[in-house]
Sequence to fold (225 residues):
Amino acid sequence: IKIAAIVPAAGIGSRMQVGHPKQYLKIAQHTILEHTLNKLTQLSELNQIVVAVSDSDEYFKTLKLSDKRILAVSGGKERADSVLNALLALNDKQPDWVLVHDAARPLVTVHDMQKLITQCVADNEGGILASKVKDTIKRGESHSLQTVPRGKLWQALTPQFFPYQALKSALQQALKNGVAITDEASAMEWAQHPVKLISGRSDNIKITTPEDYDLACFLISKQQE
Ligand code: C5P
Fold:
């Protein structure tokens, strides 16, 4: 089977409040994006790794990336547009499956990615890494109106792994219909495709705020021990 990875990396990272996109912040001598790509290149299952970068990105070309499977394409306005652009770039050599993974999640383990791929391929159903919600969840604005039962709540992580054709048409249709899509699974759910929840490590955090960055520095140093 042919599997391509897609790495949306075209965000500006405004919530990080630094002068450049957060995927280019350094942790232990390497940018966050390099750490993330280093995890993906360890997967021999991948035929191609497509990175969606912004047209105004000046940093990507300065990275030293030796893996021949890596290809850069233009990102889009929202994360879903970036993923769709990468899917369309694969039109000429369509894979069977795609593994979409945020540039901002360098802490994913190779083990968790392989578990996701193996279980989805075995059952012939798409799925995502997710972790069970541990906190008590409140709904409200200035005051809590309700405590949401957490028994069936999961936090969606990436990678998210889906059949190429089904994901491409689900994203196209969902974008056309103005559906709010913050991950691939939301488009697949909307298009009524199955989305398996595969339990993954909760320290596979998305680096969004300065606090996340501090935590990621600690976690990466621990992974490198
Ligand atoms: O903004 P957020 O942290 O949710 O972004 C998740 C991932 O999507 C990041 O890796 C970011 O670079 C990427 N992204 C993108 N294109 C956009 C917006 C975000 O590829 N237009």
Q: What stands out?
A: The pocket of cytidine-5'-monophosphate is lined by residues 8-11, 23, 52, 75-79, 82, 102-104, 206, 208 (CB under 6 Å). The longest helix spans residues 110-123. Residues 11 and 21 are 7 Å apart (CA to CA). The mean pLDDT is 96.
